[in-house]
From TrEMBL:
<dbReference type="Pfam" id="PF00933">
    <property type="entry name" value="Glyco_hydro_3"/>
</dbReference>
<dbReference type="InterPro" id="IPR017853">
    <property type="entry name" value="GH"/>
</dbReference>
<dbReference type="Pfam" id="PF14310">
    <property type="entry name" value="Fn3-like"/>
</dbReference>
<dbReference type="InterPro" id="IPR050288">
    <property type="entry name" value="Cellulose_deg_GH3"/>
</dbReference>
<keyword id="KW-0378">Hydrolase</keyword>
<dbReference type="InterPro" id="IPR001764">
    <property type="entry name" value="Glyco_hydro_3_N"/>
</dbReference>
<dbReference type="InterPro" id="IPR026891">
    <property type="entry name" value="Fn3-like"/>
</dbReference>
<feature type="transmembrane region" description="Helical">
    <location>
        <begin position="924"/>
        <end position="946"/>
    </location>
</feature>
<feature type="domain" description="Fibronectin type III-like">
    <location>
        <begin position="411"/>
        <end position="489"/>
    </location>
</feature>
<comment type="similarity">
    <text>Belongs to the glycosyl hydrolase 3 family.</text>
</comment>
<keyword id="KW-0472">Membrane</keyword>
<protein>
    <submittedName>
        <fullName>Beta-glucosidase</fullName>
    </submittedName>
</protein>
<dbReference type="InterPro" id="IPR036881">
    <property type="entry name" value="Glyco_hydro_3_C_sf"/>
</dbReference>
<dbReference type="Pfam" id="PF01915">
    <property type="entry name" value="Glyco_hydro_3_C"/>
</dbReference>
<feature type="transmembrane region" description="Helical">
    <location>
        <begin position="12"/>
        <end position="33"/>
    </location>
</feature>
<keyword id="KW-1133">Transmembrane helix</keyword>
<dbReference type="InterPro" id="IPR002772">
    <property type="entry name" value="Glyco_hydro_3_C"/>
</dbReference>
């Protein structure tokens, strides 16, 4: 008789435990899958609904159509747009003795570990898939250059490959490290290779950035901060200068690094290329060989010392010492007021020239290396015939531009305004910059000897300033207004000073041209013209008194040109703020129950209109009364689910045939970086590169290209563009915002949005508002005065709404003052909607985890936030007793806004008034069911097997 192997009791126990674990795993997995079904479907690109349309339906239901016959042709065009953006966004910083362009088919040596590790994007939502990008050697070869292979291999696979720059991950973990190859690692083999590739040395300096971490301001292990070059990089520059007659530096950074070394080491030429996107690197070779004449201009001031910016006095990690409020124990004060970037550097320079400031206290030439708007060309341009005509609501500026050089090129005409700084301003705490950008235009490609007349319209509304303490609205000061053309901000100011009779004898660094200036006089202060919204007609009044730190600390002083030294920004002692009881109370979640609120109708079909569906509202006016009839049809459960489950998608509503939508990141183009799936658009250059083109038309083409990606990938909502401000040079996400200047940012953002939305993808401009640093962006309280908020930080958002008709916004994670941005009614309703005329959806930033609880749903929907970027079905649920008439009315208004955005998007493609939305089980759920069956059968088989074995063994033991 054959003996069967016995099973021991310990083994049986282990097998029972394994079975239990399998069963528990199935249960837990099912619960997890249920809770996160939305994000799983998005990640796997498995649809959860489908459109069913009657074959007899004759409606043309393709509302947004691609302009391309195939996906390949659309992709090819997108690649062209990316390269064109970088071609026009590259800024020529220096070009001594016409070192550039390099000779055709030159043999060059490329130095620096960054050469094999270019910055194509940034970390987080603005990241770029580098598997699809060309490397520098490839693009240089395509442009006719032969690259030193010995040195390239040294960096790519040799001893130099051990050195790569590092940045923190998306959660902020890790550190910034430059990690340039030390001089000691180079051998004779590398040095000797120079002689065969000595037409030029191309030295690559790279710096990256990313979400959730600002650039390191402290000294790194090298002894230098992140925006200055370290000893290894200095040694590399010396090596280049010792071995090559021509040395060109390529700056591959989206943040303004300190470039004093260009003069210190007598560098022949330098270009700034920024983060390049998917095919933008090809532009580098075309600029170096002269096929493309660089026409980019800086969108930030490049100071010799990054810490000279007054914003740096309050930039970093500051705590509220006595706060126990969830995500409410950090703060930031914008103590510099309006004096951001060139508005500080140029204004203080003028005060020296005018004698209001001691020259010993401020030397512009030692402060600023490259002013805002600066950019060289391989050609030269002459400006003449400057005219400014006053019209009803604008000034029409015209200027003749002639290409006096020997090659074709484009030029950028910049118009700056100086408004009077009056006694009224000083008495009421209003600050005025000496110049501010109010108009610009890029010429067409002009051949040598050709000319073009540029006409720029400047809205008179640009003359307004916000008077928070006096009239409590916008005013136009009495006094002289100067409108000046300039090659950059500093050039325009020198022209204005020349018009005032000032010369180098008064401390100017060079004489300006008064022929490029016109001035107009306003006789009396005007506090009525712009006291009402030009869009809605509503009165404009203070909305951000509580955001001003003076609301809690009346002794606080913002930086003022009345006394630069005496009001220079400082932090509270040790950077720690002890909050008053009022501030602590204001930091807590707060919303108001209206005792008179009446529960709206829900789940009711109109007898007069019958059952309505979403397709009937395509193109219907936002204020059409029929929306109420549609909203009455919805149940509270449908509304609640739509509002709280808005992470990277919106849920379908079968009862009104509303399709679900796909909503993806980010500023570099439609990306699956954060959520996976197979939906992926073109990776565009960083916004700072886009802005450097100063080309509104090209940016609109880029927007249209993103919209085409939206059609092809069936993406209806796009978490972009980034519209925050380069407040400080160390901002971690400066790469995905346009500029330090709100006027430039707004014009370019509005143009991009026009392009995107013309193809049916609606935008979520972000991060609204005051999210201008990454440190403590989760709940940190940001304080700023109302003038600075409106004129610096809200201005680009306002332009994006008013001129770009943005139909979406993303609420910042930070607080403005003590209130979470999405819960601030003055921002989300009174300003965004009632003043700017915004119609559409406000979504939160990430809200899929419990530690985002401070972004409260009831507080948010009361303030005007509509949709929670949440993928967890457990979160943000409201109980029946919480669904009061007040809350349900706010839910209803939120749903109205969400529906308006969706029905006017490409999500409606294929849907007519007779279509039906049918929910379907996504494929992965069938996979899950199959896996569950297999696992449970395996667990059951183990249990049966072990139990039978034990019973059999037990019988044998008994009979024995």
């Amino acid at each position: 008789m054959k003996k069967t192997k016995k099973i021991s009791k310990p083994a049986a126990i282990i097998l029972y435990i394994v079975s239990a674990v399998l069963i528990i795993g199935v249960i837990a997995g099912d619960i997890y899958a249920k809770n996160y079904s939305q994000i799983i479907s998005i990640y796997l690109s498995h649809p959860t609904s489908k459109i069913v349309t009657d074959d007899k339906d004759k409606e043309d239901n393709e509302y947004y159509k691609s302009s391309f016959a195939s996906a390949d042709k659309q992709k090819a065009r997108a690649e062209e747009v990316v390269q064109k953006l970088v071609e026009e966004g590259i800024v020529l910083l220096k070009n001594e003795n016409n070192a550039l362009p390099l000779k055709s088919k030159g043999k060059i040596t490329v130095l620096g570990q960054n050469s094999v590790d270019l910055v194509y994007g940034g970390g987080g939502s603005g990241s770029v898939e580098t598997a699809k990008v060309p490397d520098l050697k490839t693009v240089l070869a395509k442009s006719g250059f032969e690259v030193n292979k010995t040195l390239w291999d040294f960096y790519q696979t040799g001893a130099g490959s051990s050195y790569r720059k590092k940045t923190p991950d998306i959660e902020g973990k890790g550190s910034f490290e430059v990690n340039e190859v030390p001089q000691s690692v180079y051998t004779d083999k590398e040095i000797n290779s120079f002689k065969d590739y000595n037409d030029a040395a191309l030295v690559v300096i790279g710096r990256s950035g990313g979400e959730h971490s600002d650039l390191a301001t402290d000294k790194l292990s090298t002894g230098y901060h992140y925006l200055e070059i370290d000893n290894n990089e200095k040694d590399m520059l010396k090596l280049a200068k010792e071995n090559f007659e021509t040395v060109v530096v390529l700056i591959n950074s989206s943040n303004p690094i300190q470039l004093g070394f260009l003069d210190e080491y007598n560098i022949d030429a330098a270009i700034s290329v920024g983060a390049l996107g998917q095919t933008g690197a090809y532009a580098i070779g075309e600029v170096l060989n002269g096929s493309v004449n660089p026409s980019g201009n800086l969108v930030d001031t490049y100071a010799y010392d990054a810490f000279s910016s007054p914003a740096m006095a309050n930039f970093g990690n500051y705590k509220i010492a006595n706060s126990q409020v969830d995500k409410g124990n950090a703060y930031m004060v914008y103590g510099e007021g309006i004096y951001v970037g060139y508005k500080y550097y140029e204004t203080r320079y003028e005060d020296v020239v005018l004698g209001n400031e001691k020259e010993s206290d401020y030397n512009y030439s030692e402060q600023v290396q490259f002013p805002f708007g600066y950019g060289l060309s391989y050609s030269q341009f002459k400006w003449s015939d400057y005219r400014v005509k006053e019209k009803d609501d604008k000034y029409e500026v015209s200027l003749k531009v002639m290409n006096t050089g020997s090659v074709s090129g484009k030029d950028v005409v910049q118009i700056y305004m100086q408004s009077p700084y009056t006694k009224y301003d000083k008495d009421n705490g209003i600050e005025k910059a000496s110049v501010e950008l109010v108009g610009f235009s890029k010429t067409s490609e002009m051949k040598a000897g050709e000319s073009e007349t540029v006409t720029i319209e400047v809205d008179k509304e640009e003359m307004k300033t916000y008077d928070a303490n006096g009239k409590g609205t916008y005013i136009v000061d009495a006094g002289d207004y100067y409108f000046a053309a300039g090659e950059n901000a500093h050039d325009a100011l020198n022209n204005i000073l020349a018009a005032k009779g000032k010369t180098t004898d008064d401390g100017m660094d060079y004489d300006g041209n008064p022929a490029l200036v016109k001035n107009f006089t306003v006789d009396t202060l005007d506090s009525t013209t712009y006291a009402e919204s030009a869009v809605t007609g509503n009165k404009i009044s203070n909305q951000f008194d509580g955001v001003d730190i003076k609301h809690y600390d009346s002794s606080f002083e913002y930086l003022s040109r009345k006394d630069w030294k005496g009001t220079w920004p400082s932090t509270y002692e040790d950077g720690s703020l002890t909050a008053s009881k009022e501030l602590l109370d204001d930091l807590t979640i707060s919303y108001t129950e209206d005792k008179d609120a009446v529960m709206p109708e829900t789940g009711v079909i109109s007898k007069e209109y019958g059952k309505l569906n979403a397709a009937m509202f395509i193109g219907r006016d936002y204020d059409d009364k029929l929306w109420d009839v549609l909203l009455n049809q919805l149940t509270v459960d449908e509304m609640t689910k739509l509002v709280r489950m808005g992470g990277y998608a919106t849920v379908p509503i079968k009862s009104i045939n509303l399709p679900g939508t796909s909503n993806l990141d980010g500023p570099a183009g439609i990306s699956n970086t954060l959520v996976g799936g197979n939906k992926q658009g073109m990776a565009y250059p960083a916004e700072v590169v886009m802005a450097s083109t100063w080309n509104v038309k090209l940016i609109k083409e880029m927007g249209e290209s993103v919209g085409e990606d939206g059609i092809r990938n069936e993406v209806a909502g796009w978490y972009a563009p980034g519209v925050n401000t380069h407040r400080a040079p160390f901002g971690g996400r400066n790469f995905e915002y346009f500029s330090e200047d709100g006027f430039l940012s707004g014009k370019l953002s509005a143009s991009e949005v026009k392009g995107v939305q013309s193809k049916g993808t609606f935008v979520y401009m972000k991060h609204f508002a005051l999210n201008d640093q990454e440190t403590n962006r989760l709940g940190g309280a940001v304080f700023a005065n109302e003038q600075a908020m409106r004129e610096i930080y809200l201005k680009p958002f306002e332009t994006t709404v008013r001129e770009g008709d943005a139909r979406g916004a993303m609420a910042a994670m930070n607080r403005i003052g003590a209130r979470w941005a999405g819960g601030h009614k003055g921002l989300m309703t009174e300003t965004l909607r009632n003043e700017w005329g915004f119609k559409g959806t406000v979504v939160t930033d990430q809200a899929s985890l419990s530690h985002f609880a401070y972004q409260d749903l009831r507080e948010g929907i009361e303030a005007g936030t509509n949709l929670w970027l949440n993928t967890d079905s457990k979160l943000w649920k409201l109980s029946n007793d919480q669904l009061t008439p007040t809350v349900v009315n706010h839910l209803r208004e939120s749903v109205h806004n969400i529906l308006y955005s969706i029905v006017n998007s490409n999500a409606m493609n294929g849907i007519s008034t007779s279509s039906r939305i049918v929910e379907i089980t996504p494929l992965w759920q069938y996979w899950l069911i199959a896996a569950n069956v297999v696992i449970l059968l395996a667990a059951l088989a183990i249990i049966v097997f072990v139990t039978r074995k034990l019973k059999k063994q037990n019988k044998v033991n008994i009979s024995a």
